[in-house]
Amino acid sequence: MVATCRRSSTIQGSGAGIVITSPQGEDLEFAIKFGFKASNNEAEYEALVAGMKMTHEAGARHLLAYSDSQLVVKQVEGIYEATNKSMVQYLQQIAELRTSFESFQVIQIPREENAKADCLSRLASALEDCRTRHITIQYLPNPRAALVIQAISSPTD
């Protein structure tokens, strides 16, 4: 499974967007609203941890995670050292979670390639209070009025 992680912060708060792609190419999309203040780096880590937990719970044995955060990717790879206490704690969680997978890799991607997760994170960040809300988003390819007009004007048998 492949997971892309993204975070966003707005005046209303912060959140994360996660896109999990199954081996068959099916995307599962999640918007997570944080009930706490998070720095950009903390939000990036929250997104990665959540994505790892979700893919593990879905039964994934191999995980390729993408993030547009250079700092998070380099810290997870061990190239950069984490000195901030909360970053160290996130890295400990990730180290523990990565043992649940036969293989785990995190790759940095350009922000432009993280558009789906970015959109989801902005949606989550913009929500005022969603503790008891479930939101279904539906795609409408054509206006309903055009469909009605077409049905009314088509000849009947």
TrEMBL record:
Gene3D superfamilies: Ribonuclease H-like superfamily/Ribonuclease H
A Pfam family reported for this protein in Swiss-Prot or TrEMBL: RVT_3
Molecular function via GO: nucleic acid binding; RNA-DNA hybrid ribonuclease activity
InterPro entries linked: RNaseH-like_sf, RNaseH_domain, RNaseH_sf
RNase H type-1 domain segment(s): 1-126
This protein's name: Ribonuclease HI
Origin superkingdom: Eukaryota
UniProt signal peptide: none
